[in-house]
Amino acid sequence: MKAQRNPSQTIGPFFHVGLEWKDGGRVTFAEKGQRVVLVGRIADGAGQPVGDAMVETWQLSPDGRTPAPGTGSGHPHGMGRVQTSADGSFRIETLMPGGEAPHLEVTFFARGLLRGLHTRVYLAPEERVRADPALASIARSPRLRTLVAKPAGKDEYHWEVRLQGEGETVFFAV
Amino acid sequence: MNDMTRPDANTIDPPLDFPAYQSTHLRHPKQPLVAIPARLLDVPGPTVPRGFVKSGDNDLTAQGKGLPLGERMVLTGRMLDADGRPIRRALIEVWQTNASGRYMHPGDQHDAPLDPNFPGIGRTFTDDEGRYRFLTIRPGAYPWQNHPYAWRPAHIHFSLLGNAPVQRLVTQMYFPGDPMLDLDPVFHGVPDAAARARMVCKLALDTGIEGVATGYSFDIVLGGAQSTPLGI
Q1: Would the CB atoms of A113 and B107 count as touching at under 8 Å?
Q2: Assigned domain for A137 exists
Q3: ipTM of the assembly?
Q4: Which end of chain B is more exposed for a tag (fewer CB within 10 A), N or C?
Q5: Is A154 inside any structural domain?
């Protein structure tokens, strides 16, 4: 018989004491690649900033493979972990993931979220995102655009996340 | 439904919209969650280097100049997948209040004393049998703003990476016989009584330290059995 798994609970407002990683916003890899910066901002159903969220990212390495294990006392390669500022913003410095439609897997945890919210952010033109087979069920939906970050200057991408309401970000059942 | 990574989510996990927990009101998505193929997340995930955890990081009572106040307790358990296989070398991060029910966090305004000898942070890896061990103190209950006279039952926060993205879990552990559990909307967000019971540790005094610390046991089951590597 299958064992039943443990349920999810909220991360609460005080996770920083236990989960803050030094330089967690600088993602490391064994390989070299193109540096990119993702600047995101999270808003709630009233349009107010979500200033107490934890954001985790996971991605392929620049050559399109599962990142090698981290080294020394560092973080896992390929994984970012940051908290949002009071204005709801966060920043991840990483390398451009490999693949046809480069993207980061993203999970948000926060007070008021009894489960983590899983989504993706693509650092690729919209037409390539629509062609990603993983998104087949929303390939023609206007909501797919909520997963596409906007290029903003050299090597930088901006991404607006809305937990609820107009322009609500697509979240995945995981 | 078989294509979803956690087809059991709606019976085991709390709903995102749960009015008794007021903070869910403006933060829960109203659009249905979109299915993506399970194989995308049921694959090997981030691998935390061994050096990330230092010797002694699992002893929350030894992080100050002296002993913290409160009931010292040994917390042991195993991390398993849905097939009962051990989840090995997986990172566990915990955080909690001190014995008075206060977090060492600038945002915690609970008018209870801080304990300079208790930051309330711990880390460890599971061993090759999936076992883990912390030495800590029993946390306290604390009031919160959900409604007048609202108190959170004593709990320890757990963050678990598992071995695969589908195993990623943030949860809480509660204590047996706590009368506050019946009144707590976070605990009761979990719809199924058996699932709630899995969040409650068991008193196991013979796992403690004689004359020093009580013992509690708490096993953790994560999803995504497919991804538990046997070779590591």
Answers
A1: no
A2: yes
A3: 0.96
A4: N
A5: yes
- Asked whether residue A167 is assigned to any structural domain, the reply reads no
Rounded to a whole number, what is the distance in Å from the CA of A109 to chain B's nearest CA?
A: 8
Nearest-neighbour CA in chain B from A117: distance (Å)? 9
Which residue of B12, B80, B165 is in closest CB contact with A7?
B12
- Tokens, residue A116: 């983590």
User: Nearest CA to CA, how far is B176 from chain A (Å)?
Assistant: 16
Q: Is A86 on the interface with B (CB under 8 A)?
A: no
Domain range for A140 is 23-162
Of the candidates B9, B35, B15, the one whose C-alpha atom is nearest the C-alpha of residue B223 is: B9
In a domain, A123, yes or no: yes
Residue A127 buriedness (CB in 10 A; 0-12 / 13-18 / 19+): exposed
Chain A residues with CB-CB distance to B190 below 8 A: 7, 9
What residues of chain A, 99 to 128, have a C-beta less than 8 Å from chain B? Answer: 105, 107, 109-117
Give me the number of domains chain A comprises.
Answer: 1
Q: Could you give all domains of chain B from N- to C-terminal order, each with its CATH number? A: 9-44+53-227 (2.60.130.10)
Dump pLDDT digits (tens) for A84-138: 999 999 999 999 999 999 999 999 999 999 999 999 999 999 999 999 999 999 9
* pTM reported for the whole predicted model: 0.96
Out of A44, A109, A134, the one facing B170 most closely (by C-beta) is A109
Nearest residue, CB atoms, B15 vs list A44, A72, A114 = A114
8 Å CB contact between B26 and A44: yes
Q: What residue in B sits closest to A134 (Cα-Cα)?
A: B36
Enumerate the β-bridge partners of residue B137. B72
CATH number at residue A86: 2.60.130.10
Q: Which two tokens stand for residue A165?
A: 């309401």
pLDDT tens digit sequence for A45-77: 999 999 999 999 999 999 999 999 989 999 999
Strand, coil or helix: B188: helix
d(CA B171, CA A113) in angstroms, rounded, equals 11
A73 secondary structure, DSSP code: T
* B78: phi then psi, degrees, rounded to nearest 5: -125, 150
For A22-49, what is each residue's pLDDT tens digit? Answer: 999 999 999 999 999 999 999 999 999 9
Distance of CA B95 to the CA centre of its chain: 8
